[in-house]
Amino acid sequence: MKHDANDPYRELRDSLRSLCSEFPDEYWRQIDHARTYPEAFVDSLTKAGWMAALIPEEYGGSGLGLTEASVIMEEINRNGGNSGFCHGQMYNMNTLLRNGSEAQKRLYLPRIASGELRLQSMAVTEPTTGTDTTKMRTTAVKKGDRYVINGQKVWISRVQHSDLMILLARTTPLADVKKKSEGLSCFLVNLHDAIGKGLDVRPIPNMVNHETNELFFDNLEIPEENLIGEEGQGFKYILDGLNAERTLIAAECIGDGYWFVDRATRYANDRVVFDRPIGKNQGIQFPIAEAYMDIRAADLMRYRACELFDAHQPCGAEANMAKHLAATSSWKAANACLQTHGGFGFACEYDVERKFRETRLYQVAPISTNLILSYVAEHILGLPRSF
Length: 387
Ligand SMILES: Cc1cc2nc3c(=O)[nH]c(=O)nc-3n(C[C@H](O)[C@H](O)[C@H](O)COP(=O)(O)OP(=O)(O)OC[C@H]3O[C@@H](n4cnc5c(N)ncnc54)[C@H](O)[C@@H]3O)c2cc1C
Known about the structure:
The chain is an alpha+beta fold. The chain has three domains: 10-114, Butyryl-Coa Dehydrogenase, subunit A, domain 1; 119-232, Butyryl-CoA Dehydrogenase, subunit A, domain 2 (Beta Barrel), CATH 2.40.110.10; 236-380, Butyryl-CoA Dehydrogenase, subunit A, domain 3. It contains twelve helices and ten strands. It has helices at 10-21, 25-34, 39-47, 66-78, 87-99, 102-114, 191-194, 234-270, 282-310, 316-340, 352-360, 369-380; strands at residues 119-123, 139-143, 146-157, 164-170, 184-190, 199-203, 212-223, 227-228, 272-273, 276-277. The strands form three sheets. The protein has a four-stranded mixed sheet with strand order 1-4-5-8. Strands 2-3-7-6 form a four-stranded antiparallel sheet, with no helix packed on it. Residues 122-125, 130-131, 155-157, 206, 210, 212, 361, 364-368, 370-371, 374, 387 line the site of flavin-adenine dinucleotide (FAD).
């Protein structure tokens, strides 16, 4: 595949590609097979400073924007890895950076930048209310100088590979607020102080090697200074973080998409059946070409979302659309790649089946496709609310 010679991120990409080349396909295959966490890779990323990309220089980070962070995530996936092991630190960072107090930033950011602490988890989803976030039942009740947390969360990722977690909980009952998005608050939870002392973590075995958990809160106490921003305004802060999350995951899907196109093209050129490379058949060429065009188009929306986010402009529409376009195009590319490989698409040693499972997740998380479509229909096109 030809690369864009005018790419302004060429230098950044080259650095990432060099780091990723130390972690070849066999490394990721082995991690997937053993269902373990890629510690060596995440350590290497941290030592190179990439995990602190979004932290301003005054707190020990590189002070880069979401655009550069998205290129980092894209390159990991484009080189055969999976950013899902570490992307949480990038999008969770924004909730703290944009809404945390100066004291919180001084306390945590330099330690996150140095790699001493990881901020990889965010707890929003609940088992009974699902996507209907504002109906969440987890409560945080102020008692003296502490908040007491009770409730349950589900699908909360990387808890066992994080020191800190951002938690969204209801501080004012739904019946007592004017708008359902009010009365929710964001907290920074120190996981070492919480696990076993009011927080119980139960892993959920799942389709991909993605560490994700059920969380049970039973009178977990957290100090009041761990409230992020103003009480009751947490939903707004989380939405900002979610826009960053959607945009970064769009970039990861784009990385996956290019990986699938690369592998499909390579295999189609090499594999000879009926005395000719299978890539000579239009039935093989066209699905790959179509997926490639979709990825390129999604990429434009991803850069637009990044640009708006970095300029502190509203970007909800672009972040959602980028995530949807990128996730559907990477899925299209995944299918084209698997089909091109025929039976070998199912063999672990080709890595297609692993990436196929990994990219499938992004149709569902961090937000399912239906919910993006209804957001665009209602909030952008002005159609009636459907639910
Ligand atoms: C591996 C993994 C990791 C995750 N990590 C995290 C994490 O770290 N933190 C976190 O907070 N969450 C996490 N999630 C949760 C994820 O964000 C949710 O699973 C996702 O948003 C969908 O919510 P749900 O599973 O509750 O589905 P539901 O809300 O129960 O919906 C089920 C299906 O019904 C559809 N649906 C629901 N309502 C409507 C409607 N009105 N119109 C049309 N269709 C509708 C949905 O689109 C979906 O397809 C993770 C999930 C997975 C699978």
